[in-house]
Amino acid sequence: MDASGEELADRVRALLAFDGNVEEKRMFGTRAFLLEGRILVGARTGGVLLVRVDEEHGASLIARPGVTTAVMGPRTMGTGWLDVSSSALVDDGDLSAWLDIAREDAAQDG
């Protein structure tokens, strides 16, 4: 992963530090943050945040600026996996909002 991805991972780690249930793993070239064994978010190359959400919720979130359906290798994922560009994560408030979305969807799913 590049420097911007590592910087994003540091920001995510700092914001999730209070949550002892979150585990960090390197997966698929991403620094993944898991909640109860399931990917919550991931820091990717280019400072892109991979966000796991409910498919239906993802379908509405994709309309936000800087948000696209995630691509992993040759595969375009469904609307339950979103890539949020670094331009949409300018400050920690932006990042924190995406972390909250991921946690809320994980709580509903789990």
Structural class: alpha+beta
Bulk shape: globular
Largest sheet: 6 strands, antiparallel
Assigned CATH architecture: Alpha-Beta Complex
What's the number of extended β-strand segments?
Answer: 8
The poorly predicted ranges are none
How many DSSP helices?
A: 3
Helix content: 25-40%
> Mean of residue pLDDT?
90
Share in β-strands: 25-35%
N-to-C series of helices and strands: HEEEEHEEEEH
Number of domains: 1
- Strand order within the widest sheet? 1-2-3-4-8-5
| Oligomer state of the chains in this structure | single chain
Q: How far is the first residue's CA from the last residue's CA?
A: 30 Å
Q: What is the element layout, followed by pairings?
A:
Layout: H1 3-16, E1 22-27, E2 30-35, E3 38-44, E4 48-52, H2 55-61, E5 67-69, E6 71-72, E7 75-76, E8 81-84, H3 92-109
Antiparallel strand pairs: 1-2, 2-3, 3-4, 4-8, 5-8, 6-7
